[in-house]
Amino acid sequence: MKKLSAFLFLLMIAAACTKPTTSNQISLEEYFYPLKQEKTAYVYLDTLQPLDEKIHLFYKGKLKNEEVLFLEAYKANIRLTEGYTFKVNDSVSVVEHMTIDRWNQKRRSFMRANGYLPGSQQSDSYMNVSFPSHIDSVSTFYESKKSCINQDTNFVFEGKTYPAILVRDSIKMSLYNSFNGKGKSNIFATNNLYAKGLGLVAYASADNKYLHVLSRILTQKEWEALQ
Asked: What is the total count of domains within the chain?
């Protein structure tokens, strides 16, 4: 079944490149993670490399007396790698972004553009942040442009069918050494599937080297049992 899901997702990506999509305006907030006070963890299984699990934890909280949604990314060993903070009433924009530095400390990124998801089929979102890399004197510059390439598809999870949208994320990752002035860049793309009422349910590299699909959802109690 997991292999079939992966195959269907790849077919969906291929179809999105040729199938015309509707031009109706859509609210991307409906396809974002649900706003829950209780912590919820999504476990994504790499169908191409089954041992490579990823976890996204999200929950509502407070930041400077405002309600926000926290989203944290973890590896299978429950090691935090990245975090986002979103306004509750504007879930397609980032308030704060953080990474983990080489001393295993949380570091807030410097943000130049904070778009997380496009607002419609015709628009794009842009995100541009920089943060320290794991190499001394080297900074990472992350640029992202997301475009909705299919807003008329579905995702099946635990026997229920959800309306879904497919978003292409075009990414430029650059490393710059402030000591010697040298740098290098890597350009790549990912395809991300968002289901209405669930949020991100699958994501894959454009070259099909990995494909993560939502495999199970953990409650706060189940998540805390892993700590």
From this structure: 1
